Amino acid sequence: MDFEGQKLAEALSMAIVVVAAVLGFLYGYVRQDFAAMMWVFASGTAVAGLVGVPDWPMYNKHPVRFLPPKAKEGQRGGGSSGKGGGSGKRKKAASWSTLWGMF
């Protein structure tokens, strides 16, 4: 789901929930039945969930284009030849003590 699709999904979901709340209130008021009002509202919320949660194709009309990855210094073609093109520094291996140090 792209950013425009998220905006559309939120707008549709909010509109459906508001309409369901108003219709549920009116229906419950006319019938003088709180349970009927809650059923109408719950049904509208379920419809809003079905419209907004799955990644429908209508939410993917504006995909985000990312830049290609940048080549590291000293490397050409993106491959590793094993001929020492790096600076000689190695990354510190992750361990429980380094993770614990974050807290």
Q: What does this protein structure show overall?
A:
Residues 76-87 have a biased composition (Gly residues). This is Signal peptidase complex subunit 1. It is found in: Endoplasmic reticulum membrane. Component of the signal peptidase complex (SPC) which catalyzes the cleavage of N-terminal signal sequences from nascent proteins as they are translocated into the lumen of the endoplasmic reticulum. Dispensable for SPC enzymatic activity. It is a multi-pass membrane protein. With 103 residues, the chain is an all-alpha fold. The chain has a domain at 3-59. The chain contains three helices and no strands. Helix 1 (3-31) runs antiparallel to helix 2 (34-52). The protein starts with a helix and ends with a helix. The mean pLDDT is 83.
> What's the pLDDT, averaged over the residues?
83
* Amount of helix: 40-55%
Q: What are the segments in which pLDDT stays under 50 over at least 5 consecutive residues? A: none
Largest beta sheet, briefly?
none
Number of E strands: 0
Keywords: Endoplasmic reticulum, Membrane, Transmembrane, Transmembrane helix
Transmembrane segments: 12-30, 36-56
Family: Belongs to the SPCS1 family.
Biased composition (Gly residues): 76-87
Summarize the structure.
The chain has 103 residues and is mainly α.
List the helices and strands and how they pair.
Elements: H1 3-31, H2 34-52, H3 96-100
Helix pairs in contact: 1-2
